[in-house]
Automatic annotation (TrEMBL):
Membrane-spanning residues: none
Source domain of life: Eukaryota
Entry protein name: PKHG4 protein
Species: Dryoscopus gambensis
Amino acid sequence: MLSNKRIQELELVMEFEKVEECFKEVSSWIENVGRKRLKETTNLDDSLEMLLQAQKQFKEFDLVASEYCKRGQEALKKMNQWEDFSFVDVHSYRVKLQTYGDQLEEFCTQLDETRHRVCETVRLYEFFDKVR
């Protein structure tokens, strides 16, 4: 039984290493591209025309960002089986997994909030443009 547990642990470690490559890529993109692009959308322009242009650019970014979020979430799902194991040796991997998961969740939440804010701002400006 102990041997089987060790084999399972080694299999999980090998699987984690594969999944970790995906996490590193997603994490790197979030830090180097994603967060910077989200910050760029904090100050939306005052004219409807400029706002529509910003919305178009955000939609293009959103497609790419959503794909990275999806890839990260799929990788997290693959590692859900780690919760069933209580080996001391895999604790450090769980900590890494939690860190990646927290970063991904935070970014995806910010992406959703920005998407909503841009959409609502455009709707508001379109409404005011019709009123004029």
